[in-house]
Amino acid sequence: MKAQRVEMFVCPMATPSDTSGLQQLADSGKVRPDTLVALAGKTEGTGQHDDWGRVWADVVLREWTAKFLGIPVTEVAKQVIFVLSGGCPGVITPHIAVVAREWIEVPDGDIDAKEDKRLVVGRAGSDAMPPEEVGRMGQIEKVAEATRRAMADAGLTDPRDVHLVMVKVPGLTTASIKDAESRGKTVVSHDLTFGPEGAGVYANDAAALGVAMALGEVPESALSDEVVRRNWDLYSEVAMTSSGGEKRHGEVVLFGNSSGSQSSLRIGHAVTKDFIDAEGVRNALRSAGLQFEALPSEAELSRLVHVFAKSVIPGSDQVRGRRITLLDDVDAYQIGKALGGMLVASVTGRTTNYVSGGERNSHQGPPGGNIVAAVVRVDG
Amino acid sequence: MKAQRVEMFVCPMATPSDTSGLQQLADSGKVRPDTLVALAGKTEGTGQHDDWGRVWADVVLREWTAKFLGIPVTEVAKQVIFVLSGGCPGVITPHIAVVAREWIEVPDGDIDAKEDKRLVVGRAGSDAMPPEEVGRMGQIEKVAEATRRAMADAGLTDPRDVHLVMVKVPGLTTASIKDAESRGKTVVSHDLTFGPEGAGVYANDAAALGVAMALGEVPESALSDEVVRRNWDLYSEVAMTSSGGEKRHGEVVLFGNSSGSQSSLRIGHAVTKDFIDAEGVRNALRSAGLQFEALPSEAELSRLVHVFAKSVIPGSDQVRGRRITLLDDVDAYQIGKALGGMLVASVTGRTTNYVSGGERNSHQGPPGGNIVAAVVRVDG
Amino acid sequence: MKAQRVEMFVCPMATPSDTSGLQQLADSGKVRPDTLVALAGKTEGTGQHDDWGRVWADVVLREWTAKFLGIPVTEVAKQVIFVLSGGCPGVITPHIAVVAREWIEVPDGDIDAKEDKRLVVGRAGSDAMPPEEVGRMGQIEKVAEATRRAMADAGLTDPRDVHLVMVKVPGLTTASIKDAESRGKTVVSHDLTFGPEGAGVYANDAAALGVAMALGEVPESALSDEVVRRNWDLYSEVAMTSSGGEKRHGEVVLFGNSSGSQSSLRIGHAVTKDFIDAEGVRNALRSAGLQFEALPSEAELSRLVHVFAKSVIPGSDQVRGRRITLLDDVDAYQIGKALGGMLVASVTGRTTNYVSGGERNSHQGPPGGNIVAAVVRVDG
Amino acid sequence: MKAQRVEMFVCPMATPSDTSGLQQLADSGKVRPDTLVALAGKTEGTGQHDDWGRVWADVVLREWTAKFLGIPVTEVAKQVIFVLSGGCPGVITPHIAVVAREWIEVPDGDIDAKEDKRLVVGRAGSDAMPPEEVGRMGQIEKVAEATRRAMADAGLTDPRDVHLVMVKVPGLTTASIKDAESRGKTVVSHDLTFGPEGAGVYANDAAALGVAMALGEVPESALSDEVVRRNWDLYSEVAMTSSGGEKRHGEVVLFGNSSGSQSSLRIGHAVTKDFIDAEGVRNALRSAGLQFEALPSEAELSRLVHVFAKSVIPGSDQVRGRRITLLDDVDAYQIGKALGGMLVASVTGRTTNYVSGGERNSHQGPPGGNIVAAVVRVDG
Question: CA-nearest residue of chain B to D326?
Answer without folding.
Answer: B50
